[in-house]
Amino acid sequence: MTAHAIEPSVQKLPTGIASFDIIAKGGLPRHRTTLLSGTAGSGKTVFAMQFLAAGIRDADERGVFVTFEESAGDIRTNMRSFGWDLERWERDGKFAFVDASPDPHVETVESGTFDLGALLARVEHAVKRIGASRVSVDSLGAVFSQFSDQSVVRRELFRIASALKAMGVTALMTAERTDDYGPVARFGVEEFIADNVMVLRNVLEDENRRRTIEILKFRGTDHQKGEFPFTIVPDDGLVVIPLSAMQLKQKSSDIRVSSGSPELDKMCGGGFFRDSVILVSGATGTGKTLTVTQFLNGGAAVGERCLLLAFEESRDQLFRNAIGWGVDFERLERDGLLRVVCDYPEVLGLEDWLLAIQRTVAEFKPNRVALDSLSALERVGTIRAFREFVIGFTSFIKHQEITGLFTSTTASLMGGTSITEGHISTLTDSIVLLRYVEMFGEMKRGITVLKMRGSLHDKGIREFTIDKKGMHLGRPFRNVTGILAGTPVHVSPADVERIWSHFEAERGERRADSVVTDGERRRGSDRRRSS
Amino acid sequence: MNDSTPQGGTLATYVLRLYVTGTSPRAQVAIANLRRICEQDLRGQYDLEIIDVLEHPEVAEREKILATPTLIKQLPPPLRRVIGDLSDKEKVLLGLEVRPELPATDRPDHP
After folding, report:
1. A257: which residues sit within 8 A by CB, 6+ positions away?
2. Which CATH architecture has domain A12-245?
3. Which chain A residue has its CA at the smallest distance from B24's CA?
């Protein structure tokens, strides 16, 4: 291989469709035809039109839309909801329809062989007339249904595809498929017409609709692999949510910010990192919302803007609780330091929540975002969609150099982990656990910093109390073991001393640590017996 | 546009338009086939216009023509379309709704 061979031979045309260009590594292959296949209602027509609309709006590239299915009039009306004024663009010579939709009032009889020469002449004419560089054809399946002689249609589609190439336009053709995970397209030939194939899916998973886009092949050039979720929203049209694309570029900050509790800051080795994401996990009533309240108050105290996304409690409840801990949310709101978004998770799908949150963040520009709780959002979508939401959200706020704090609710009162944590713990930088600890007929609360990426932290489990001024951290639970497992067992101080003597080498530095599991304890006593 | 002058009695003037692509062999075949049908079955009572879509793509756009050759019967109503090289005469007559002169020989290959 020479150095010349490495140079990309296929150029990409940025489509302007939000985030699609990221997964397509630059856009659609320029001067080529790309097939977009999908089941009914998967968003093919919207994508095909948005490809043109984005070109007109963002790059002054003109577009021709060839429609075989819906009439031009219907499409003009339908696309108005996305803010695309096709009539105006048609008047301005930036956009043209080739309306090849069937006319239900005219009967057509076939007698002898034919070709689609007239269609090709119309497309070429439209492209030349407005100087188009983008062409969308929607949809190939509808051409087949207009003519009885399928072999003629096949032959003619090949001819049109090669004519589009000769015209030097970048083209997108849509095709129907009957099954979300079946043959690429219904007539089995469409995929050979195009150099590039993409698939839109609209799958029903656990009673939730999930839209994804996948690039199957880009001949001679690179793209990201796998399915990427997308959503269709008014104003913007189709928005792709790129997952892997966002993670790599994150910067890492070593600037510390306060958690709002000086004692918790001390446990974390001096506070949270500024662009980190912290997960606070605990059973109901352990103090998650309090941690959130303190986190927001701590930000506002130093003049930072804070956004609270509350999915569990009503606005009134949140504000009343905060007052109970000595924090006046209303005043913070008046000062412009706090914004509270309070809603039922069910009102939107997870992809739409992600977009809505991103918009709020872009507009309010907060320094801190708290989400209470992820577990409430989890019930809106599938596990996979949820994981994608968290990936999208965490990478988004890290990009903005925002400190994020999420809560998650554990199912059991005394311990264990939630399903939520299992799916997202690797995505968060720090994990704070809040746990109930039963001691001598009394419920106490324990807090521990389980993980603190990039920093030393206190590994003890400390008792804490809640009063009118918030959270107060006390001493570590020295003589209790099995707290995290949800089965606290008391150990006499003499036992603790004896166990630690087995770890003599580490003793000096780890003396302050207090977690001793059941297994270690047993091993310790076994060894003692055998000696 | 031709005037629509309805003829009395059994004879009507057929206003026909044939859309073809250039001077392709298929266009030539279609034109020859159509001329023969017109002389034999329409007894000269027709007005035929041949349009090359390569020269007049805007007309093809307005009339929403996809296939070539396409024959359109403008008059008498209703509007009818026949696509193909018009080699199947029966289908052309059926498509144009031309009534056969001799009803006795109608549908000879009916089972």
Report:
1. A271, A272, A273, A274, A298, A299, A304, A368, A403
2. 3-Layer(aba) Sandwich (3.40)
3. A117
